[in-house]
Fold:
Amino acid sequence: MNNPSLKKRTLLYLGPKQFISDIESNFKEYNVFSTIDEIEVDRILDSVSIIIDACLEIKFDKNRLLLARNLLIYATASTGFTHIDHIHLAEQNITLISLKGKKEFLKGITPAAEHSWLLLMMCARKVKSAINDINNDIWERTRYPGKLIKGKTLGLIGVGRIGSWMAKYAEAFGMKCIGYDPCPIDVPKNVRLTPIEELVKEADFISLHVNYEKELDRFISKELINNFKRGSIFINTSRGELVDEDALAKAFLKGDIASIGIDVLTNEQEYKKSNLFKLSKKHDDIIITPHIAGYSPDVFPMVLQYICEQVKIEMDKLK
Structure:
């Protein structure tokens, strides 16, 4: 168990370098060390009291966290933390800070919703194929006919903060909205709630916006995927672990799913092993972005400052 003192004043910041000065100004009494190199991270962990993680690229499993013998606070600038062994943190009385549940702060943060809508639009209009044609000096406007969005049905799995933004965008585009949420609160008026089994059968577009919990592993199961409306489009900017990705890949290959737009994968540290990633190399109708939905330089300073303030609150408790 960690000794609750702040004698070793080293803070490890993992994130965009242009914001290091913001960390240093908030923690002037700390030696701020910044890197996203795993070897360097492991080398310095023994002296680290605080980690502020804004990159999410390094997996902090139990073995790595055991190196951080003086760690008191781990703060991640994300709502999810599948890259962290949070059970080990709890066992060692190390405070975990995240954006999960910070509804008041997050309600005006829209990058993840905007990126979700971007993926939906790119899949509907086969933008990846069109761009690849242009890059190969092909100009042919009828090769990749886009899917009309107006009048189609958007199925929202999770009608919380991001799902609600998606419902607003869908209304502006003339879409019908259905939604599933185990704990619906403040559901937009244009969303008709329905059981998830009915949602996947009815929706032309399915967009996933559920926070990951261990009991929700592969929540979008093989059985659900096999009941997707034929020719539907699937969007996921939540967490890869929520989806049976192998079943999703098989449904795509069979033609049951027309297109997939995702920003997340299971075990992103080894993304090249993913069947979806491998398929995306051969099929333009699978669009993958590298977990960038929640990141925007326009809002990141606000998020980082909020995390810093939460860290300071926890530091005061330890003194």
